[in-house]
């Protein structure tokens, strides 16, 4: 080629001595294509680099950009706290506060001086052996203790143990403790509702943590805010219908009753007649929701809502109410209860005494089983079943409480005559204490029934008419006569207030048979009668002292509860009677 | 002429650049201050919750009854020794 030739020519021209070309090696001419090849490879390499640069900068830039960001951007967690639970007056029933979980890298912590670990064990309130056991692990992350409160954390941080760190979390506190716990429930260590309202309203109470992106400087200060990544949602506060004061009154009444009558358990519920709100719901035995380490099923049981029982005599006003409302009987209709027992298809039904000839009012006042059966014999089973359904027996509750029972009422077509007769005085069907209390609403409220609520209600709900206002007034008069010196609930009298109600005693099923010695006493009542305000139902389970019937264990408990509740709610007295007459031997209802 | 314009523009440019630096500096400081105050607000929220919890604990009916009965020697009132006044009555 020309270029090669001119070059070699120039070299020759420039040399004056021995020409380079004399060297046989240099004399070898390189092939032309080699230089072109080098040129091409160089260009191609540059072109490849350029294309790669364009590709990374312009087209496929996401990966590197995100890698870059992760080296200077930080994502900050924006905490969201669980909503508080408040009572109707705004008192705190449950609230979440930040605490810390203490975790460790076992290897590093074990390398620190033993006295530090001893001090740590003391601060955490755990035996040192337990801590060492937890640290004896191959894992690189071990929780030592969760939900440690802040003052303790400050002490632990002073110890400066290598490999020990804390993580922020929330702990639920229940300031009212055991008093209201069956209603409020509790959360687990992950802040999830496990029982009661905490479980029922988990979705609204729960907060959703958000996050935002920032650039931090060398000192850890935020240098630039890159905006919100995810909005945090704070949990919403929940205002319950419960009144702390009434709740406390109900709780102490029940607790005293269980201790006084040597009973296995007790429960009470207070309803607001006008709004259907549950103002108090007390159970005993109970537990402390702040320390659940020794929790048993007995303590956890909510006897008002999740337990059912045979309502016994407390159902009689419903039977009589239907009879009155359909015009089949009047308060003055006379029934002959002689001789104190009767036989239906070979099975005997009895009263505790022979009440002789009684009016309908007398049947309620004395709580005569035979009278109730005779009234029910005038009512077709289907109508009775419809009545039970309307007042909520056997119906799935709609007030929203986890584990609430529907009770049990069998379809009327399968009732045999003896079974129907038993139902007239409350056997062969089962209800919860709350259902029992709610069914009394038809008497307290001029014949209609409204839904119950566990959260605060701002306006009165619309009721569903079950019986006429006239019938309701007639039954109210009868219920008031029960709570009088002549009635079975003479011990439910309250000084200064007119109370009406009905006692009940049911024999417990022990090994599939009705027990003569184990029973449950009830009282369901309305007060004050001049202008009903509260419905109170009380249950005393298995009283083992001398007094066992509803009239002698549940009625006085309800009286205590009514007296304190009406006074606490500033209800003006509607009776001038301040001396209560309780007969020496009060009348006791049949079982 | 053009030299003067150049000098003027250069001075302006440097001035602007310095003011940008200053603005960034101020912004960062304000941001840090904001962060600090937000942190403080969160802490105050927690304190408020804590105080409400304490209030609820101290106002527990159980405790009040104990104190009323044992320390203040109070007894529950009964209708027998209560005089009720009707509003508007002579």
UniProtKB/TrEMBL annotation, chain A:
Active site residues of this protein: 313
Superkingdom field: Bacteria
GO molecular function: penicillin binding; peptidoglycan glycosyltransferase activity; serine-type D-Ala-D-Ala carboxypeptidase activity
Domain Penicillin-binding protein transpeptidase, chain residue ranges per copy: 266-562
UniProt record, GO biological process: cell wall organization; division septum assembly; FtsZ-dependent cytokinesis; peptidoglycan biosynthetic process; proteolysis; regulation of cell shape
Subcellular location: Membrane
Family: Belongs to the transpeptidase family. FtsI subfamily.
Name of the protein this chain belongs to: Peptidoglycan D,D-transpeptidase FtsI
UniProtKB/TrEMBL annotation, chain B:
Signal peptide: none
Keyword set, alphabetical order: Cell cycle, Cell division, Cell inner membrane, Cell membrane, Membrane, Transmembrane, Transmembrane helix
One GO biological process term: FtsZ-dependent cytokinesis
Highest taxon above the source species: Bacteria
Record localization: Cell inner membrane; Cell membrane
Membrane topology type: Single-pass type II membrane protein
Gene Ontology CC entries for this record: cell division site; plasma membrane
Record text on subunit structure and interactions: Part of a complex composed of FtsB, FtsL and FtsQ.
Function field: Essential cell division protein. May link together the upstream cell division proteins, which are predominantly cytoplasmic, with the downstream cell division proteins, which are predominantly periplasmic.
Name of the protein in question: Cell division protein FtsL
Taxonomic source organism: Massilia aurea
Origin organism lineage: Bacteria, Pseudomonadati, Pseudomonadota, Betaproteobacteria, Burkholderiales
């Amino acid at each position: 080629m020309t270029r090669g030739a001119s070059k070699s020519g120039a070299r020759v021209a420039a040399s004056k001595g021995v020409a380079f070309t004399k060297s046989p090696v240099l004399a070898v001419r390189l092939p032309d294509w080699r230089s072109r090849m080098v040129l091409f490879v160089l260009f191609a390499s540059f072109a490849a680099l350029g294309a790669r640069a364009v590709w990374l900068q312009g087209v496929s830039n996401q990966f590197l950009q995100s890698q870059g960001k992760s080296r200077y951007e930080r994502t900050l967690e924006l905490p969201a706290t669980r909503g508080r639970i408040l009572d109707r007056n705004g008192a705190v029933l449950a609230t979440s506060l930040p605490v810390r979980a203490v975790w460790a890298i076992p290897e590093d912590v074990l390398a620190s001086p033993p006295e530090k670990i001893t001090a740590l064990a003391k601060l955490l309130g755990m035996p040192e052996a337990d801590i060492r056991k937890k640290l004896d692990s191959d894992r690189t992350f071990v929780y030592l203790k969760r939900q440690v409160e802040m003052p303790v954390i400050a002490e632990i941080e002073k110890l400066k143990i290598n490999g020990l760190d804390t993580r922020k979390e929330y702990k639920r506190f229940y300031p009212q403790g055991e008093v209201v716990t069956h209603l409020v429930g509790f959360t687990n260590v992950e802040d999830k509702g496990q029982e009661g309202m905490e479980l029922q309203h988990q979705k609204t109470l729960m907060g959703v943590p958000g996050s935002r992106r920032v650039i931090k400087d060398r000192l850890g200060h935020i240098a630039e805010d890159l905006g919100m990544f995810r909005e945090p949602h704070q949990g919403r506060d929940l205002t319950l219908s419960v009144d702390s004061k009434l709740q406390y009154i109900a709780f102490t009444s029940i607790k005293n009753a269980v201790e006084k009558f040597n009973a296995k358990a007790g429960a009470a519920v207070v309803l607001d007649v006008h709004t259907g709100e549950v103002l108090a719901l007390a159970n005993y035995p109970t537990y402390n929701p702040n320390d659940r380490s020794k929790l048993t099923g007995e303590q956890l049981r909510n006897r008002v809502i999740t337990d059912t029982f045979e309502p016994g005599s407390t159902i009689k006003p419903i039977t009589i109410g239907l009879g009155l409302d359909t015009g089949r009987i009047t308060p003055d209709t006379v029934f002959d209860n002689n001789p104190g027992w009767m036989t239906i298809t070979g099975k005997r039904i009895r009263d505790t005494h022979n009440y002789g000839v009684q009016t309908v009012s007398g049947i309620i006042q004395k709580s005569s089983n035979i009278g109730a059966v005779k009234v029910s014999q005038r009512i077709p089973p289907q109508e009775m079943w419809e009545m039970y359904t309307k007042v909520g027996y056997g119906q799935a509750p709609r007030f929203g409480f986890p584990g609430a029972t529907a009770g049990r009422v069998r379809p009327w077509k399968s009732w045999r005559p003896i079974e129907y007769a038993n139902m007239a005085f409350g056997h062969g069907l089962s209800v919860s204490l709350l259902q029992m209390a709610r069914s009394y609403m038809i008497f307290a409220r001029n014949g209609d029934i409204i839904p119950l609520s566990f959260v605060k209600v701002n306006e009165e709900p619309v009721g569903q008419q079950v019986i006429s206002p006239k019938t309701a007034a007639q039954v109210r008069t009868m219920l008031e006569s029960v709570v009088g010196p002549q009635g079975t609930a003479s011990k439910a009298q309250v000084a200064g207030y007119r109370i009406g109600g009905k006692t009940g005693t049911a024999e417990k099923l022990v090994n599939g048979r009705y027990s003569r010695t184990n029973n449950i006493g009830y009282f369901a009542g309305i007060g004050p009668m001049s202008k009903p305000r509260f419905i109170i139902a009380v249950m005393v389970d298995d009283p083992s002292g001398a007094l066992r019937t509803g009239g002698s264990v549940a009625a006085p408990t309800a009286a205590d509860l009514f007296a304190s509740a009406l006074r606490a709610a500033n209800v003006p007295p509607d009776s001038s009677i301040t001396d209560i007459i309780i007969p020496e031997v009060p009348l006791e209802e049949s079982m | 002429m053009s030299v003067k314009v150049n000098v003027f523009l250069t001075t302006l440019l440097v001035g602007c650049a310095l003011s940008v630096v200053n603005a960034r500096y101020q912004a960062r400081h304000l941001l840090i201050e904001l962060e600090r105050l937000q942190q403080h607000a969160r802490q105050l929220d927690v304190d408020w919750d804590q105080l409400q919890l304490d209030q609820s604990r101290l106002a527990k009916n159980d405790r009040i009854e104990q104190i009323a009965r044992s320390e203040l020697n109070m007894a529950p009132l009964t209708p027998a020794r209560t005089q009720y006044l009707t509003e508007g009555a002579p």
